[in-house]
């Protein structure tokens, strides 16, 4: 049999899994490609990892590096050391990385130093805030990648401005939205809100995990005071990220008793389908996540982003996103406005149509398998 083109598909943290899934399934349609899933183990709790493989029907990772948590340097270095051995042993023809987490830069950097070409999916997004670890990961990954797949025109412009050659940039759309569109009907049947005793459009959701929001006690206290006020108007479901969970355990002056604070419902992190279900029936979402800004744009659910900047300005220009920062009064004001206002119709950003992974694979096919096609 003809030798198949070996591609290492790297995923490490929760938001990566829904980005590699459509690319994996698309690659599998072509016998010429041999996709190998490498999970770095950056996220390892079942709620942060294996639930997503289950929900997305991804096979178990072919290779699990099990690096776990640590400081940035520890985690990035451990991924690099382990991934280098994988590259040496497997000799892939291409490494595909997604998003902006530590696994993304670690594996991209390891691969290029072994002269293995790198493709970066979701390239070119910029918050212009270098205090965010993700911004550093994005900037560096894009500089060393050979194929940069982008979700929007802002990203194309950012890359060109940074001197990336035009031939490397491919505007393909949004692979995470491929996954959302594929699973939305199934997710809608779950009715997660009912399971939590809530009615459609009669609750909000909170997600919080950015170090800039949760690592400083005063900032976290301020945000939670705002949310607590908002929860007097509408109950707020709060699937709590492990980083944030630890802060609540450690901070004694935060007066949030998970059992008795009726307005805010603390729950464990949800799987992909359960969270999509919960989001699709919500009145609004309060979040500091990147991906949720995009998902709410497609769902038409108002998104109040608890940050002062975003690397996804298209979700403000065309979607449902509003930046509210982390100031208590602003959070209360914007949430009240959303609760009172009638629904609005966002535009769907160009190429967020469910076919982004197909475009990615078509390009890879034309570059590596059949240059003439
Ligand atoms: C990481 C990404 C961030 C992404 C987020 C999504 C980086 C720099 N950050 O942030 O961009 O938005 O994932 O969730 O890559 N922990 C567990 N169980 C797990 C994973 C983590 O308990 O399965 C705890 C550990 O104590 C760990 C902490 O959460 O120290 C933070 O995890 P880490 O992967 O370092 O960063 P995130 O905040 O999850």
Topology record:
Elements: E1 5-11, H1 14-28, E2 33-39, H2 50-55, E3 63-64, H3 72-90, E4 94-98, H4 102-113, E5 118-123, H5 133-144, E6 147-150, H6 153-161, E7 169-171, H7 175-190, H8 192-195, E8 204-207, H9 211-214, H10 217-230, E9 236-239, H11 242-250, E10 264-267, H12 272-280, E11 284-287, H13 291-299, E12 303-305, H14 314-317, E13 321-323, H15 328-340, H16 356-369
Parallel strand pairs: 1-2, 1-4, 2-3, 4-5, 5-6, 6-7, 8-9, 8-11, 9-10, 11-12, 12-13
Helix pairs in contact: 1-7, 1-16, 3-4, 4-5, 7-12, 10-15
Bound molecules: uridine-diphosphate-N-acetylglucosamine.
User: How many beta-strand runs?
Assistant: 13
Q: What integer value in Å does the Rg equal?
A: 20 Å
Q: Into which percentage range does the β-strand content fall?
A: 15-25%
Which residues sit in consecutive blocks of at least 5 with pLDDT less than 50?
none
Strand order of the largest sheet: 3-2-1-4-5-6-7
Described by the principal axes of the CA atoms, the overall outline is globular
Instruction: List the ligand species.
Output: uridine-diphosphate-N-acetylglucosamine
Mean pLDDT over the residues: 95
Distance between the termini: 22 Å
């Amino acid at each position: 049999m003809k030798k198949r083109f070996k591609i290492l598909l790297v995923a490490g943290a929760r938001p990566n899994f829904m980005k590699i899934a459509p690319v994996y399934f698309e690659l599998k349609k072509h016998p010429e490609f041999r996709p190998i899933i490498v999970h770095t183990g950056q996220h390892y709790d079942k709620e942060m990892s294996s639930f997503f493989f289950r929900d997305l029907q991804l096979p178990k990772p072919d290779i699990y590096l099990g690096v776990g948590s640590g400081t940035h340097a520890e985690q990035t270095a451990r991924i690099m050391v382990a991934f280098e051995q994988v590259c040496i042993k497997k000799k892939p023809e291409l490494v595909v990385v997604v998003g902006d987490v530590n696994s993304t830069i670690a594996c991209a950097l390891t691969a290029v130093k072994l002269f293995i070409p790198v493709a970066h999916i979701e390239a070119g997004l910029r918050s212009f805030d270098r205090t965010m670890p993700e911004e550093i990961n994005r900037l560096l990954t894009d500089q060393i990648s050979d194929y940069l797949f982008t979700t929007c025109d802002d990203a194309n412009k950012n890359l060109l401005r940074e001197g990336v050659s035009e031939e490397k940039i491919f505007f393909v759309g949004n692979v995470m939205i491929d996954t959302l569109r594929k699973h939305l009907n199934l997710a809608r049947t779950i009715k997660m809100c009912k399971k939590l005793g809530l009615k459609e459009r009669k609750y909000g959701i909170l997600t919080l995990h950015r170090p800039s929001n949760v690592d400083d006690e005063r900032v976290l206290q301020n945000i939670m005071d705002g949310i607590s006020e908002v929860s007097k108007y509408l109950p707020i479901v709060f699937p709590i990220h492990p980083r944030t969970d630890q802060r609540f355990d450690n901070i004694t002056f935060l007066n949030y008793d998970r059992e008795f604070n009726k307005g805010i419902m603390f729950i464990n992190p949800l799987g992909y389908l359960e969270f999509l279900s919960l989001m699709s029936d919500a009145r609004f979402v309060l979040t500091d996540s990147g991906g949720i800004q995009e998902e709410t744009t497609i769902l038409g659910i108002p998104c109040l982003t608890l940050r002062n900047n975003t690397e996804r300005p298209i979700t403000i220009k065309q979607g449902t996103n509003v930046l509210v920062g982390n100031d208590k009064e602003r959070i209360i004001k914007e949430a009240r406005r959303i609760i009172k206002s009638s629904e609005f119709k966002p535009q769907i950003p160009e190429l967020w149509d469910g076919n982004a992974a197909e475009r990615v694979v078509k390009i890879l096919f034309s570059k590596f398998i059949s240059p003439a096609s």
